[in-house]
UniProtKB/TrEMBL annotation:
<dbReference type="InterPro" id="IPR038763">
    <property type="entry name" value="DHH_sf"/>
</dbReference>
<feature type="region of interest" description="Disordered">
    <location>
        <begin position="13"/>
        <end position="34"/>
    </location>
</feature>
<keyword id="KW-0378">Hydrolase</keyword>
<dbReference type="InterPro" id="IPR003156">
    <property type="entry name" value="DHHA1_dom"/>
</dbReference>
<feature type="domain" description="DHHA1">
    <location>
        <begin position="395"/>
        <end position="445"/>
    </location>
</feature>
<dbReference type="Pfam" id="PF02272">
    <property type="entry name" value="DHHA1"/>
</dbReference>
<dbReference type="GO" id="GO:0016787">
    <property type="term" value="F:hydrolase activity"/>
</dbReference>
<dbReference type="GO" id="GO:0003676">
    <property type="term" value="F:nucleic acid binding"/>
</dbReference>
<protein>
    <submittedName>
        <fullName>DHH family phosphohydrolase</fullName>
    </submittedName>
</protein>
Length: 448
């Protein structure tokens, strides 16, 4: 045991960040006992793991896990709540004025995600660096005092402790495959991490996560796996961050872990950009992609650029060319011509749509081999229908791809899609069906 370990060491306040690559702080001996308030809040489950970050002072590296964890070192406590490290630091001369200050880099990362409300109940909460021990509220993981588990007062949660990675720590990026928004999210990660040995892997909801991610630090953008598959990731990955904006995923996963973040106001690409490049404005092409993906159409030439984007491969390195202004001007100019062709074909195709009943709703249905999104949106404008359903047969999967679009708020399409194993947004969702379209349309609405 190192010198002074049996006394009550405290950190020198000139060394505020635990993981900082600076000289180690001195451990100052302080007489007295651990305050009861601190002791009652720092009980550990018997076999709970203690996560130790990189760059610990040599004095702490020399301590065994038992001495760091179960026996504790009073006045300098490390407690792993979810994936977060609390640095208990004595304030002033009174023994009951301990406070909790978080590792600065992780707090900054979460601040950049704009996590300013409780991830469980949605109640607004301030992001603060210091929290008084008697009324703990986690300013990093997003739990307000009402939703904080009993573990903050009694026991460590019975769940694996997993890193919420900072941008530079990410080792694997999983992104929504063959989707401009997902590919642009991968571009945002690649722009920062391209000189590192990072693996990029395109995937879709409904797939199984690759098993080789076990033990790695993983970031997922613009989609999420099912509840069971996400639990697998939380159990097997060394670190995990999931950022998505699809309502169906949020409804299923929002209470599962603070490592899962949803924001309906930003696209997957914008979420990724703000995470990896918090102090930089996104490039123009990424703004166009967000404008289309959220179906806002608030920017001039969004439709023209989107029309051109659909003619190039969904490749994050290819998207890097759009950072050149001259390339962007050419893309928009070509897109305007393509857009005229699209509008003509959409107008012709929608004439073949027909009105029928589906799950108790009036639905415009059409077999559509191309331009599914555009044709679906045009059909949804018909005043007699609640939403549009367009479909096509996929020979590779031997399934029918079903896309739904709505122009109103009469029905939550993400809920319908989830019934069939798919997902999406309130007014735009999709799923795959293994039967015939006639069998699908005969399905009965499920009751909760």
């Amino acid at each position: 045991m190192p010198k002074g370990a049996g006394t009550y060491p405290v950190l020198n306040e000139e060394w505020p960040t635990l993981g900082a690559q600076t000289s180690s702080p001195p451990l100052l001996p302080v007489k007295g006992k651990t305050p009861p308030a601190v002791k009652s809040n720092l009980k550990l489950a018997k076999d709970a793991p203690v996560f130790v970050p990189r760059g610990l002072p040599p004095q702490l590296e020399a301590l065994s896990i038992e001495e760091r964890g179960e026996k504790r070192t009073p006045a300098l406590e490390f407690w792993s709540h979810h994936n977060h490290i609390y640095q208990w630091q004595r304030k002033g001369d009174q023994g009951d004025t301990y406070q909790c200050s978080q590792i600065a880099e992780r707090q900054t990362s979460l601040s950049n995600l704009k996590m300013n409300s409780c991830f469980r109940c949605g109640k607004s909460r301030p992001i603060s660096a210091d929290l008084i021990v008697q009324s703990i509220t986690c300013a990093i993981c997003g739990l307000c005092s009402d939703c904080a588990p009993a573990s903050t007062k009694e026991d460590v949660p019975q769940m694996k402790h997993i890193i919420l990675p900072t941008p530079s720590e990410v080792e694997v990026v999983l992104y929504h495959h063959e989707c401009p928004d997902g590919t642009a999210a991968a571009f945002a990660a690649w722009k920062l991490l391209k000189k590192k040995n990072v693996t990029f892997y395109g995937a879709k909801r409904g797939d199984q996560p690759p098993r080789w991610v076990a033990g790695k630090i993983v970031a997922i953008f613009d989609f999420c796996y099912s509840l069971e598959e996400t639990k697998f990731l939380l159990e097997k990955c060394r670190g995990l961050l999931i950022m998505d904006h699809h309502k169906s995923g949020m409804d299923e996963l929002k209470h599962l872990s603070p490592n899962i973040y949803f924001d309906m106001e930003r696209s997957g690409a914008r979420l990724a950009w703000d995470y990896f490049h918090p102090n930089q404005a996104p490039p123009l092409f990424l703004k166009y992609i967000e404008d289309r993906d959220l179906w806002k159409w608030s920017m001039a030439d969004s439709k023209a650029f989107g029309a051109y984007l659909d003619t190039v491969p969904c490749n994050y390195e290819e998207y890097d060319t759009f950072c050149d202004d001259s390339v962007m001007r050419g893309a928009v100019e070509k897109g305007r011509a393509i857009l005229s062709y699209i509008e003509y074909n959409v107008s012709r195709s929608t004439r073949r749509g027909y009105l029928t009943d589906f799950l108790g709703y009036k639905v415009m249905v059409l077999n559509c081999t191309h331009l599914m999104n555009e044709i679906g949106n045009e059909l949804a404008l018909q005043p007699a229908c609640d939403f549009a359903l367009v479909w096509q047969y996929d020979h590779h999967s031997d399934k029918i791809i079903v896309s739904m679009r709505s122009s109103n708020m009469k029905v939550d399409l993400s809920e319908i899609a989830r019934q069939f194993g798919g997902g999406g947004h309130t007014k735009a969702a999709a799923f795959r069906w293994s039967g015939t379209i006639q069998q699908l349309l005969k399905q009965v609405k499920k009751t909760k």
